Amino acid sequence: MKSLILFLLPSFLFISNIEKNGNDSEKCDFCILKIDVSNTTSDYGPWSTANCYSGIIYRTKCNSSYCTIQFQSIYKNENCVSFSWEIWEDYNMTKAISTGNRVYCMGYQDTKEFDYVPKNKNAGVWIVVKKLRFIKNDTGKYEPCDH
Q1: Half-sphere exposure at residue 66, Cβ-oriented, CA atoms within 13 angstroms
Q2: Which domain holds residue 111?
Q3: Beta 48-49 vs 56-62: how paired, if at all?
Q4: Using CA atoms, how far apart are residues 18 and 48, in angstroms rounded to an integer?
Q5: Which residues lie closer than 8 Å to 133 by C-beta, 6 or more apart?
Q6: Domains: count for the chain
Q7: Is the dihedral of CA 139, 113, 101, 85 positive or negative?
Q8: Which of 24, 64, 98, 125 is deepest in the core (most CB within 10 A)?
Q9: pLDDT tens digit string along 83-134?
Q10: The pLDDT of residue 71
């Protein structure tokens, strides 16, 4: 049985697809970060934690033509963190801005930066973070959400 759980938090929106199997174990698949792209600034905003993965933090900045997102790993005991991320124009994830993106083997306190162009700066964007692994060759099972 599948059910969709929705949490509204002050700085972002978190969605978790919870799937119960025969032995009642639960599995989280991804989180969605709601980003306000209407404010232009030359400085990054404060670091925020991706609610699904406690060791992935992010911050953004936007100018008049594009936005930049930075991801950082704060998983202290992991030398290699890989995860996928996507940008969507709408909450229902039907209008893609950028998909198929993967951060490979980010070490503790490493920062990765990516630019993107929002299609509607008044509506904001949704950034999906999913498919996290702690394995250097980026194979095997994905980690579930850790908080």
Answers
A1: 9
A2: 2-133
A3: antiparallel
A4: 23
A5: 81, 82, 83, 139, 140, 141, 142, 143
A6: 1
A7: positive
A8: 125
A9: 998 988 888 888 888 888 899 888 888 889 899 888 877 778 888 899 999 8
A10: 92
- Contacts for 54 with CB less than 8 Å, ≥ 6 apart: 146, 147
How is residue 48 annotated by DSSP?
E
pTM: 0.73
Question: What is residue 106's three-state secondary structure?
Answer: strand
In the chain, pLDDT over 70 holds for what percent of residues?
Answer: 80
Is residue 140 one of the residues assigned to a domain? no
Supply the pLDDT for residue 70.
92
Which residue from 59, 76, 65 is spatially nearest to 113, judged by alpha carbons? Answer: 59
Evaluate whether residue 76 is within a structural domain: yes
Integer angstrom CA distances of residue 32 from 20, 111, 140: 21, 20, 23
Q: What is the CA radius of gyration of the chain?
A: 15
